[in-house]
Every structure is written in structure tokens, then in C-alpha cells.
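User: Sequence recovery, please. Input:
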């Protein structure tokens, strides 16, 4: 919420500095995110008058003598602008002046003459024609002839002001306006708040053709309409334009600007409908039909459903209630009759509509926090007052008020002062509570320790004694809260649950292997499917209805793209040896369109690249992880679209496939931004494991046994088998051949014509161990014999001579 200091001063006498006001607002629970000075970096620039001007012969320059209010002293300034004339009032920068673009003015030699200053354009002061007429000219900004010579340009142009950007929490919708902040400032400073002028006079004209009907009063409990006519399409006065621009609004036309002005000043979103565009001169507030369409003021077509509330005429929708008006009813230079709208819409309805359609507006931002019915009335009255004051239109007597039983009376609540002190944990004097609440515009009576309060109509958030306690303490001072209650407080024991401890153990182990944890966003783009060569039938993903950007339009179904992007970004920043891991969810829809929440599968993704990384270093990490968790992984050749077909493996645990790993395909690497820089020699390795399936196999307790004190034995064997036989299959057969087999490792593999067509050789190192005795040569020969017999029967394996 942006608030202009001078605007606040219209309604409360502020006698503290902007810095002091910022601190006081913060102490009262209103966080000031920024205080911006409009005249920032504008110094020593004055209203000057050209007393004489002559052409600098042989150049494009003009020699100007400028009076800046110092009697008997003119400043010699050279300029190339040809729109300057004798007697003109101009912004004159003297030596030492500063401009918003960072430029500092110093004496400057131009041709053979010294210039002691500069004349400014509107662009150099960061102004446009909406802030000051003529600021957009291509040349020096010419000021009005009544501009006082010698006045600081910041004062003359209204830049001697401050914009407070205040964060408004959801429980304080009453502070979403200049008036709301002014009420708080008045209470903080102990001053009286002055209400905006809301008086207006109706001329007796009645338009009997207009009708207003609210069908869904549960969503729209209050709707006010008022007819004005003889509309003049003209610009707003300069003071209104400047205020709107300073707080982030555009100046459009007087009628539209009035609605925006009321939005900021009163906090009431309003809309002005061109009556000529309303079929049957009717307003109907109803739910949208499924699939109904509306083109909003931003020019976009919106497809609606029954959760959206519409403002319609007799035939069609003309606005999206609480969010944005329709393009078909906007104010134009041809508008002659207007129906003003000031309404209250249920905040959850507006919030769902705005977010569901990805359509955010200042009106929606206020409705989402809540609009009270008092603001509905004040907003309409203030708008009609401005219409009449500015001479924009004539105010008729045709007024419409559709209510679901609104009360104009203040609510009465009773609160015990002892209860307030109990909630706060300190003793606030009773008379201090009364003073604070009266300053906040509560009606207060106190008798026998009970506060009888009449709550301001704009404070719909006040319901319980806790709310009153909050009002008291933020004015009394949070610094007065002392921790007297800590002696009786109990400390809650924290800690990790079993699942969290397992995750931490896995993460800690991976860190010990040189991996760094990363965290990536769970949303991605459909283009990732193309880049990672995912088949069409596997592209089932949850669509996001209101994506932040097109690159974040679906929920991820696999982790590799995010991992590869992280590696790519680090390589581009000069880090070429990388080991990353991420433990996060992927989102797999059971069916599309969604009929239930997608299945969330926790996935462990590893990524690595660098000169020391290859397929086997990744496999080594997985082997070590399995050993750390007292598990055994086996591997089979895998097929993943984005991984190299000859360097991809499935990871198997207890007979179930729990993931895959391998090298990223060369053509996928070539599609990355790093491909040009790295000349195609970058190798990236990725693993994805179903962590939910993996962690289910973790043992509750891991038991470690000491090494047996008996001698072990090793033997190398070389086998010739068909090329289609996988290494993992043979290792598994060897391990199950005899209880003495404790470890098997492949150390050599090659193909040769001498081996025969379609044959290959694999060499294994086999370790035998016993927990009961030394392994003898006889035991070794017997076991190797079993192994060779078993492999011969299964694969036709033969010993290579």
C-alpha cells in the first residue's frame, strides 16, 4: 500500500519527520517497507527566468543569462535547445546541482566560452507531461509564467514529498487506504482525524429505466449504484494526476481517475459503467455459466466457470466482480451517462477468481483482504463529491442500494480488562486502555473492570478479547512486554521423526562422498519433454492453471531436467567438476484431466560431471550408498530416452527396479547452452532413484559385524560368453553359487575375432571367505568348479585359455 505524505496531511496534522513517522508506524504494527523521497537526487535546481538570449555565432548554441532569484546576479548558461526564448521560465541547474540520472553540474567549456550551469528538460528530471504539462517536449521544459523565480524546483513541481510503501497484513483490511493509514497516524500522534469531504447534492433528475438486481447475495451482500449524466470527457486536475502517479496509478481521464482516487483514498474499489453499453440499462450480479466468456479491460478473453461472480447487463457480462471490468463497458470520449458501482464482494470468492484466472488488479488485492460495508458507502459518497467538485458530470437522484441485511449500527462487544491483561501477560492500566481505544475511534464505557465497546464500522476484524488486546498493546508499546511468564513455561521437546532421520542419514552419506545438496523448483516447462526426448505417451503432467511464467507451467514428472540445468549453470560460471544431489518429489497424475490429487513420489537424483567422473564413478557412489544402508544393488542394462543407450543401467534392489543411472546423451548435451563453449566434450552423469521404494527397504537397525580372523582366498577367472550376456547377471550367479563367495568384481572386458563371432571375454576377481576357518586350496578349487559348472549351464560360458 503506497501512501503519499502530503495526502495523509490532508486528514491528520503530522508534526514529526518522515523518519520518525516510519518508526512510529512500525511500532504500531504497520511495517513500512520503503520511504521514497520524490525529489531524490535533485539538488540546486531552481525556477529561473531567461533575462537575455543571443545566438553564439558559428555554433548551434545559445548564450542565456538566467535570473535564479539572486538580485543583481545572472548566471551564464549555454544551451543547444532552440525552444528557449527571452522571458521564459525554466528549470535551471546551477554549478553543484544534481540530477536523478546521477549527473552533477560543473563549469563546462563549450567552444570558447564557459557555461556555469544547465537548463533541464522534463526527461532529465524524470518527469512526463502527466506530472507537468510540457515535460515531454523535445527541448527545455518551459514552466508557467506564474512560476516564482528562485523557488526550489522540487517545491514548485510538487516533488518535496514522500511515498510510504506500507505492508498491510490480511487482518488489517481497514488500512488499505490513505484514510485508514491516517486514522492510525492520528491515534499514534494523539491527533484528530479529519474525514474527506463526502458531501454532494442531487439535482432531482431520475432515470427510471435503470435497474439493479443481485441474484447471489451470499457472495455480494451489498451493492450500491448511482447514475450520473452529462459526462464531460476531460483530464483530471494536476493535483489529482500527481497523487495517482506517485502511488503507482496512471492518469487516464477524469471519470476513470476518480474511481482510482477513491480506491486509494477510501480503499473502496469502484467501477464506472458506460450506461449506453448496458443492454436494458440493467445491472445483474450473478454467477458465471460454465464456459462463459468475457474480454476484460486488459484486452484478454477469460473463460469462466460457476465459481466466478459476474456483473452483467440484461444480455451479457460486463465485468468480473471485484477483479476487473469488461472491455465492452469502459469509459470512452463518447461516454455521456455513467452508472457508478460500489460494492462488497466476499473476499474468498474474489481471491479464487483472481488466482484461478491469473488476473491480479488493485481492486482484487483489496477485496482479497476484505472490504467493509462502511467503505462501500463512503466510497460512493466520495466519488459523487469529486464528480461534482471537478465538474465532470451531473449527479442525479437515481440511487440503488441492494443489501442482504446490512446494519448501519456499530457492533457492541464487552471485554474484561483483566482478560486483556491476561492475554498480554502484563498489567496495562485501565485508564490507558480507555485512552487507546478512544483514540482508535472505539466508543468506550468502563465499569467494574468491563469495557463496553462500540466497534467502528470499518473494523470488521474486531471480534474477540484477543483482538482488543492486540489493539491495546500495539499502541501501548510492545517494548513494555516483559517475559514475566517464562518461569512457568514448558519447553517442548523437538527432534526428527524416523523418516526424517533416514533422509538425514542418506544426505549426510552423500555429502561424505563429495556431493552437494541442491534445491530446485518443482515446476517446469513442457519444452523439457522435447529436449529430453520423452515419448509422447509418457508426457502426462499436471498443468498449472495460473503459471508464474510459461517456463513453470507443469509439475515435474522426473528430476533430470532440473539437475542438468543446475549443472549447466555452474559450468557456465566456471565450475566444471561437480557432484550434486537432490531429494524431492515428482508429481505423477493417475489420470488426466485430474480427478484426484497426483501421486507424489519422493525421488533421489544424483548428478555429476568433470574429468574424474564416468559411468563407473556414479555406480561406485550407488554401491557405497547401498553398503551404507546394509543393502545390495544389482544392475541390468537400461533404456532411458535422455541417457546414452550403451551407458545406462537399471538399479535393482531385492528384485525390484528402484531407479536408473547413466550418461546424458550427446545430442541432449549439445542442446544445452554450454555445448558451444565446451565444444561437445562435456559428459554429464545422472541417477534417479525412487526414494520411497528405496527407504522402504532400509532396515530399522543396521548391524555391523567384525571381520572374520580367518584367511581369505582370491582367484581370477576369464570367461568367454555371448555378447548379449550382461555382467550383472554373471555376478549374481557367482554370488549365489556358494556360501563362501564374499565379493565379485569385474576387472576386464574385451571383444576379439579370436574369441569367435558374437563372443566377448569378461574377467572377474572372486573373493572367498569363511567365518569358521581358513579358506584352503581344496575349498577354492571346489567352489570355482561349482561356479564354472553353473555358468556353463546358464550361459554356455567357457574358460578363456
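Assistant: Recovered sequence (801 residues):
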Amino acid at each position: 500500500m503506497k501512501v503519499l505524505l502530503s495526502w495523509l496531511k490532508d486528514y491528520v496534522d503530522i508534526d514529526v519527520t518522515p523518519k520518525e513517522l516510519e518508526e512510529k508506524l512500525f511500532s504500531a504494527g504497520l511495517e513500512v517497507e520503503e520511504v521514497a523521497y520524490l525529489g531524490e537526487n535533485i539538488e540546486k535546481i531552481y525556477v529561473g527566468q531567461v533575462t537575455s538570449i543571443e545566438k553564439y555565432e558559428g555554433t548551434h548554441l545559445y548564450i542565456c543569462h538566467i535570473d535564479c532569484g539572486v538580485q543583481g546576479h545572472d548566471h551564464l548558461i549555454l544551451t543547444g535547445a532552440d525552444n528557449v526564448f527571452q522571458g521564459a521560465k525554466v528549470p535551471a541547474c546551477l554549478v553543484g546541482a544534481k540530477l536523478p540520472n546521477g549527473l552533477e553540474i560543473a563549469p563546462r567549456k563549450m567552444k570558447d566560452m564557459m557555461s556555469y550551469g544547465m537548463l533541464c528538460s522534463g526527461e532529465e528530471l524524470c518527469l512526463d507531461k502527466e506530472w507537468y504539462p510540457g515535460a515531454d517536449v523535445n527541448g527545455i521544459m518551459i514552466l508557467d509564467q506564474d512560476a516564482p523565480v528562485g523557488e526550489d524546483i522540487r517545491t514548485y513541481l510538487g516533488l518535496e514529498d514522500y511515498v510510504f510503501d506500507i505492508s498491510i497484513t490480511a487482518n488489517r483490511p481497514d488500512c488499505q487506504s490513505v484514510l485508514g493509514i491516517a486514522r492510525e497516524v492520528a491515534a499514534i500522534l494523539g491527533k484528530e482525524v479529519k474525514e474527506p469531504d463526502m458531501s454532494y447534492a442531487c439535482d432531482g433528475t431520475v432515470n427510471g429505466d435503470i435497474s439493479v438486481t443481485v441474484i447471489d447475495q451470499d457472495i455480494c451482500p451489498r451493492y450500491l449504484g448511482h447514475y450520473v449524466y452529462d459526462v464531460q470527457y476531460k483530464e483530471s486536475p494536476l493535483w489529482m494526476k500527481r497523487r495517482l502517479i506517485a502511488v503507482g496509478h496512471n492518469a487516464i481521464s477524469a471519470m476513470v481517475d476518480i474511481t482510482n482516487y477513491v480506491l486509494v483514498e477510501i480503499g473502496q474499489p469502484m467501477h464506472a459503467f458506460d450506461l449506453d453499453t448496458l443492454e436494458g440499462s440493467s445491472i445483474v450480479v450473478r454467477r458465471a455459466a460454465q464456459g462463459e466468456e468475457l474480454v476484460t479491460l486488459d484486452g484478454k478473453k477469460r473463460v469462466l466457470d460457476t465459481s466466478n461472480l459476474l456483473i452483467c447487463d440484461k444480455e451479457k457480462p460486463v465485468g468480473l466482480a471485484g477483479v476487473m471490468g469488461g472491455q465492452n463497458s469502459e469509459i470512452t470520449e463518447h461516454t455521456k451517462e455513467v452508472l457508478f458501482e460500489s460494492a462488497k464482494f466476499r473476499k474468498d470468492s474474489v481471491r479464487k477468481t483472481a488466482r484461478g484466472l491469473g488476473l491480479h488488479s488493485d481492486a482484487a488485492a483489496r477485496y482479497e483482504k476484505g472490504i467493509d460495508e462502511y467503505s462501500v458507502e463512503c466510497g460512493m459518497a466520495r466519488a459523487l463529491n469529486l464528480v461534482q467538485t471537478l465538474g465532470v458530470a451531473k449527479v442525479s437522484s437515481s440511487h440503488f442500494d441492494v443489501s442482504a441485511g446490512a446494519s448501519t449500527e456499530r457492533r457492541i462487544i464487552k471485554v474484561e480488562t483483566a482478560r486483556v491483561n491476561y492475554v498480554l501477560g502484563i498489567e496495562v492500566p485501565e485508564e490507558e486502555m480507555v485512552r487507546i481505544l478512544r483514540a482508535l475511534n472505539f466508543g468506550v464505557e468502563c465499569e467494574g473492570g468491563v469495557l463496553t465497546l462500540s466497534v467502528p464500522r470499518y473494523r470488521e476484524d474486531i471480534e474477540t478479547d484477543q483482538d482488543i488486546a492486540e489493539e491495546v498493546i500495539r499502541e501501548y508499546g510492545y517494548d513494555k512486554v516483559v517475559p514475566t511468564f517464562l518461569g512457568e513455561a514448558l519447553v517442548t521437546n523437538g527432534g526428527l521423526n524416523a523418516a526424517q532421520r533416514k533422509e538425514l542419514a542418506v544426505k549426510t552419506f552423500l555429502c561424505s562422498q563429495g556431493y552437494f545438496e541442491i534445491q530446485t523448483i518443482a515446476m517446469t516447462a513442457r519444452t523439457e519433454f522435447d529436449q529430453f526426448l520423452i515419448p509422447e505417451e509418457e508426457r502426462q503432467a499436471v498443468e498449472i492453471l495460473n503459471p508464474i511464467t510459461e517456463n513453470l507451467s507443469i509439475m515435474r514428472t522426473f528430476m533430470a531436467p532440473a539437475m542438468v540445468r543446475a549443472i549447466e549453470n555452474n559450468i557456465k560460471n566456471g565450475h566444471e567438476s561437480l557432484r550434486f544431489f537432490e531429494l524431492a518429489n515428482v508429481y505423477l497424475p493417475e489420470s488426466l484431466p485430474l480427478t484426484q490429487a497426483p501421486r507424489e513420489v519422493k525421488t533421489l537424483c544424483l548428478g555429476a560431471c568433470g574429468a574424474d567422473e564416468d559411468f563407473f564413478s556414479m555406480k561406485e557412489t550407488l554401491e557405497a550408498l547401498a553398503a551404507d544402508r546394509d543393502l545390495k544393488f544389482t544392475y541390468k542394462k537400461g533404456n532411458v530416452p535422455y541417457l546414452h543407450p550403451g551407458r545406462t543401467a537399471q538399479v535393482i534392489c531385492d528384485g525390484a527396479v528402484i531407479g536408473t543411472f547413466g550418461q546424458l546423451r550427446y545430442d541432449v548435451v549439445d542442446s544445452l547452452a554450454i555445448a558451444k563453449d565446451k565444444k561437445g566434450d562435456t559428459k554429464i552423469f545422472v541417477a534417479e532413484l525412487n526414494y520411497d521404494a528405496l527407504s522402504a527397504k532400509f532396515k530399522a537397525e543396521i548391524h555391523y559385524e567384525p571381520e572374520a580372523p580367518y584367511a581369505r582366498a582370491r582367484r581370477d577367472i576369464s570367461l568367454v560368453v555371448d555378447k548379449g550376456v550382461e555382467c550383472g547377471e554373471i555376478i549374481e550367479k557367482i554370488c549365489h553359487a556358494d556360501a563362501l563367495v564374499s565379493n565379485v568384481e569385474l576387472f576386464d572386458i574385451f571383444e576379439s575375432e579370436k574369441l569367435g563371432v558374437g563372443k566377448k571375454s569378461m574377467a572377474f576377481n572372486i573373493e572367498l571367505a569363511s567365518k569358521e576357518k581358513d579358506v584352503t586350496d581344496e575349498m577354492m578349487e571346489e567352489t570355482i568348479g561349482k561356479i564354472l559348472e553353473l555358468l556353463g549351464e546358464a550361459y554356455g560360458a567357457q574358460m578363456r585359455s
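The two ends are 85 Å apart (CA to CA).
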